[in-house]
Amino acid sequence: MKRATLKNLLLLLGTCAIVLGGTEAFLRVRAKHTRAAIRATFDDSKLCTMASVDKRLIYTYKPDECGNNSQGYRDVEHSFEKPAGTIRIIIIGDSVAEGRDVAPDSTFGRVLERILNDRNDGHHYEVILLARAGYSTSQELVLLEEEAPRYDPDWILWSYCMNDPADPVYHNANGALGAYYYHPRSQLVALVRAGIFRVTQKIRGRGCPGEFHAFIHCANWDEIERNIERIGGTTRAAKVFMVHPIFEDRPTFERPSLGDIQGRLLAMAMMPGLMRPLDLLEAFKPYSPQELKINRRDYVDPWHMNELGHRVTAEYIAKTVFPPEDASGPRY
After folding, report:
1. Is 276 a residue whose pLDDT tops 60?
2. pLDDT for 252 beyond 80
3. Which of 12, 76, 90, 180 is 20 to 30 A from 139, alpha carbon to alpha carbon?
């Protein structure tokens, strides 16, 4: 009896092992074909990327290629040692902060640096860009906590977009790049984890709006609060929490559809001693969304600014965060 039971158990375990092994093999072959198909669609900018040693980032940019500096950012070169008399400002964000759709010299970071240095107020300002297209908050936190401190920054400007809470993998926040460079050790385990994530999101999102950006904020607000507190508590640098408005299909920026969420984010950032909130909607109100956005023929892009949008952003930051009438330099 015992031998029969043991034999049946071994048979069951063997069958399970065969089924699981076969499923894993099938999923790996499918993933390989998917990656090959994605690779075939890459344009020149995506060919400038590579898998990250830090698996939390998934991918980075190739250093010293395609206009990237030696640290793999679309920026000029910066030394880790801060020059004497220099006020260093680090911008952390995604493709909006990076300014992928405008010339490197036209991004709001570069424009801000020129505005501040043209004042000749006795300070030298250096703006350092730590931003990569497609990054979510979870990836940007890695840049804040592990890369930003090497530059000894005086200021951190956190560039927040309304899709930032999205999970890099399970929400496909990194798009084709994330799908191409994400290499789980087990495709089967990754599939199970993805299923658990979807179920968890549905449970958390009961009663939440159906629109994606409103949903991910509603369903994940507890995590968003923790992340904002984490941003504010990292490094001794003064911090500014900027929220970028969406370019909606309407004539003005009045009454944005996600305005309530933006207000909650800014209020959270304004907690005593945390960060200075900066609502860029105030800077954009004199303009129409069409005047400031990148207008594409192939798809609707609600996120990315044109050169005018970057200049307006830089001028607003300079005026509100670094007011010229303050002779002692920038103030928190």
Report:
1. yes
2. yes
3. 76
The number of beta carbons lying within 10 Å of the beta carbon of residue 113 is 21
Q: What is the mean pLDDT of the chain?
A: 90
Q: Where are the beta strands (DSSP E) in 43-123?
A: 49-51, 59-61, 86-93
Residue 326: pLDDT band with limits 50, 70, 90? low
Which two structure tokens, joined as six digits, stand for 219? 């369903």
Task: Give residue 172's pLDDT.
Answer: 78
170 CA to centre of own chain: 15
CA dist 197 and 209 (Å) reads 18
CA-wise closest residue to 104 among 283, 313, 310: 310
Q: Which residues contact 26 (CB under 8 A, 6 or more apart)?
A: none
Q: Which residues pair with 238 in a beta bridge?
A: 155
Q: Which token pair is 76?
A: 């000029």
Give the DSSP H or E segment for 309.
helix 307-320
Torsion angle of C-alpha atoms 220, 221, 227, 230, degrees rounded to 10: -150
Question: Beta-carbon neighbour count of residue 266 at 10 Å?
Answer: 19
Residues 254, 250: Cα–Cα separation, whole Å:
9
Quick one: average pLDDT of 81-109? Answer: 95
Tell me the sheet residues that pair with 243. 160, 279
- What are phi and psi for residue 15, nearest 5 degrees? -65, -45
Cα angle 84-89-93, degrees, rounded to a multiple of 5: 150
Token match 């401190």: residue? 149
Judge contact between 61 and 49, C-beta under 8 A.
Answer: yes
Question: Kind of pairing, strands 124-131 and 238-243?
Answer: unpaired
Top CATH class of 50-165+220-320 equals alpha beta
pLDDT of residue 1: 52
pTM for this structure?
0.90
Contact 33, 121 (CB under 8 A): no
CA 139 to chain centre: 7
Q: How far is CA 33 from CA 30, 59, 152, 180, in A?
A: 5, 19, 44, 11
